Amino acid sequence: MLQYKKYYMPKSKEELFRLMEQNAHSFDIISGGTDLFAEERTPFNGQDAAIDISSIEDFSIIESKCGFITIGANTRIQQFLEEPVLLTLCLF
User: Fold this and answer.
1) How many angstroms separate the CA atoms of 34 and 22, rounded?
2) Parallel, antiparallel, or unpaired for β 49-52 and 68-71?
3) Which site among 28, 29, 59, 80 is 20 to 30 Å from 16 CA-CA?
4) Contact 52, 14 (CB under 8 A)
């Protein structure tokens, strides 16, 4: 199990940045963290806090503008599979 001294789940980018500043660069940014559970070998990885960005909607986007595609840090696999912008580019 992941062990941190503090765990935060901000709801906005502003709250995220405030938490990053308050925790003096001793944090991990995670999005749910399920991939970390499988990799963990020791009970404590050295960072004091975990900041879980999975509740920040701004990071769960796929959008196309000016010929570029932006994919947010929280984008889920299902979003990739269903996103019309990506489906039109797919050459299976």
Assistant:
1) 25
2) unpaired
3) 80
4) no
Q: Tokens 């502003």 correspond to what residue?
A: 14
| Residue 68 Ramachandran class (φ > 0 left, ψ -120 to 50 alpha, else beta) | beta
Residues near 54 by beta carbon (within 8 Å), at least 6 away in sequence: 9, 30, 31, 32, 74
**Phi, psi values for residue 79, rounded to 5°:** -65, -40
What was the pLDDT predicted at 18? 96
How confident is the model at residue 21, as a pLDDT?
Answer: 94
Chain segment 17-40, per-residue pLDDT in tens: 999 999 987 898 988 776 666 555
Closest residue by Cα to residue 51 from 12, 13, 19, 22: 19
Q: What is the pTM of this model?
A: 0.72
